[in-house]
Design brief:
Layout: E1 2-10, H1 14-25, E2 30-34, H2 60-72, E3 77-80, E4 83-87, E5 93-97, E6 100-109, E7 113-115, H3 123-126, E8 131-132, H4 135-138, E9 146-150, H5 154-164, E10 169-173, H6 186-191, E11 195-198, E12 201-208, E13 212-219, E14 225-229, E15 232-235, E16 239-241, E17 271-273, H7 285-306
Parallel strand pairs: 1-2, 1-6, 2-3, 6-17, 8-15, 9-10, 9-15, 10-11
Antiparallel strand pairs: 4-5, 5-6, 7-16, 12-13, 13-14
């Protein structure tokens, strides 16, 4: 079956559904292609405390559902289907999916990015219940508690600094003997009295029974194994942008994110990138939603210029 739209949005997270809301509200025939469920990564977040308008917070799954309902109220259509390939050049763009072919004059890429996992057994079991991938999202749940940050880059350093202001202790676990983060982070971390470093160490396994209790570490140089009791751990070893569908068509940066500035435009006319999949400084629900609104503006402008 072949379906034609003005705007096709690939991905149903906050960026995708905000774009859908604005596009549909502007009278554009809009479809969202989502393979799992509304909300993207936030659907897996136990509680969202930093999205405006919810003074007591909201669980991520419900927030995703509300975003979907808001877009569909103005006529946006959601198709639960997996996109197998994209053809983004030319005036009409095509998405081949497991339920047919979709066509549109504009494509908004909202495929997101996923945190790199530790890769240890039982990791999935503890996601949201001791294992976290966003300190800005979940750090406040550990006020006065003991946490660990795994990683040594800029994100890990920033996470450790943020957590040092709310947690009792922050243990930084890094596989090297010095941080890879830029120098600006080094002195504040070294001066923080509640930040403890575990150099040359990797996470061997996760500890816990009914609740999460800590990490088992292995020193890479000595081979020594030790247990580190913590209430929670924040994994900050990078993210993986979901750009496999657009490689070779849309320009990517060195880390694999779509090159799109604050206008959300890509190198291809009529193709925009929003949310975590694009090159940007801060990846949060609120910045993803902002991207969606911006993309709708330029998508409408592009369509008007095409006549």
């Amino acid at each position: 079956m072949e379906r034609s739209y003005d705007v096709m949005i690939v991905g149903g997270g906050p960026a995708g559904y905000t774009a859908a809301l604005y596009c549909a509200r502007s009278g554009l025939k809009t479809v969202v292609l989502e393979k799992l469920s509304a909300g993207g990564q936030i659907a897996l977040t136990e509680w969202v405390d930093n999205y405006p308008g919810f003074d007591e917070g909201i669980d991520g799954f419900t927030l995703g559902q509300k975003m979907q309902a808001g877009a569909e109220r103005f006529g946006a259509v959601t198709e639960y289907t997996e996109v197998l390939s994209l053809e983004l050049t030319g005036g009409i763009k095509r998405a081949v999916t497991d339920s047919g072919v979709f066509e549109a004059k504009v494509v908004i890429l909202a495929t997101g990015a996923t945190p790199r996992p530790l890769g240890v057994s039982s990791e999935d079991t503890w996601v949201g219940r001791g294992i976290h991938y966003c300190a800005a999202c979940d750090g406040m749940f550990y006020r006065g508690k003991t946490v660990a940050v795994v990683g040594g880059g800029n994100t890990a350093a920033a996470d450790a600094l943020l957590l040092s202001r709310v947690a009792k202790e922050v243990h930084v676990v890094h596989r090297r003997d010095t941080l890879r983060a830029t120098q600006i982070y080094h002195q504040p971390l070294m001066e923080a009295e509640n930040v403890i470093f575990h150099w040359d160490s990797t996470v061997e396994s996760l500890l816990g029974g009914e609740t999460f209790t800590g990490l088992r570490l292995r020193n890479k140089k000595t081979g020594a194994v030790s247990d580190l009791p913590v209430d929670g751990v924040f994994v900050s070893i990078g993210r993986q942008p979901a750009t496999q569908l657009v490689e070779g068509q849309v320009e990517l940066d060195g880390a694999g994110y779509v090159l799109a500035d604050e206008s959300t435009r890509t190198n291809l006319p009529g193709v925009f990138a929003v949310g975590d999949v694009r090159t940007k400084v801060l990846r949060q629900v609120v910045t993803a939603a902002a991207d969606g609104a911006v993309a709708s503006f330029y998508a409408d402008e592009y369509l008007a210029e095409q006549g």
